[in-house]
Amino acid sequence: MSLPGSRKNFDEFRVDDAACRQFAFEQVGGASAQQAANQSAVGSAVVGTAVGAGAGALIAGSSGAGVGAGVGLLTGALVGQSYASGSYWSVQQRYDFAYQQCMYAKGNKIPVSVGYARAIRAQQSAAAPGPLAPYPPPPNKPPPPQR
């Protein structure tokens, strides 16, 4: 979730949202989380079938190949389901992080829980008692004029 920055109207926010969605999509390789999960599940089922058929053929000859392929398909599908779930969440998390980074960089707000915000403030105050020093400007911007 992100919210418009303090000095942004809703139309500017929508433009940022569209740009950041595209950016995040590119960061995960142009595949949705569901596509990654499907590819992982299918790949595991195919590998399981091939390994099962090979093992069945070695153990019981050509008649065991069919049984081995069936067992391999079932095992591969079960393992693939676990991998698919992991792939889904991994891609979704990378997309979410890229989106949030982009929106924050464009000056929008990213809400965090109160407990998290308090923990960050506590770490900052413990590391550097007193007022926090301002961050230096990014390297591409010239420093502000000195008075």
Description:
The protein is mostly helical and 147 residues long. It has one domain. The chain has three helices and no strands. α1 packs across α2. The protein is elongated and about 85 Å long. The two termini are 40 Å apart.
Quick one: overall form?
elongated
Rg calc: 25 Å
- In helices, the fraction of residues equals over 70%
Number of helices: 3
Number of strands: 0
Class computed from helices, strands and strand pairing: mainly alpha
Let me know the largest β-sheet: none
**Overall average pLDDT:** 75
SSE pattern: HHH
Strand content: under 5%
Give me some keywords for this one.
mainly alpha; 71% helix; 0% strand; 3 helices; 147 residues; elongated; single chain
In short:
It is built from three helices and no strands.
SSE layout:
Elements: H1 10-27, H2 33-105, H3 114-127
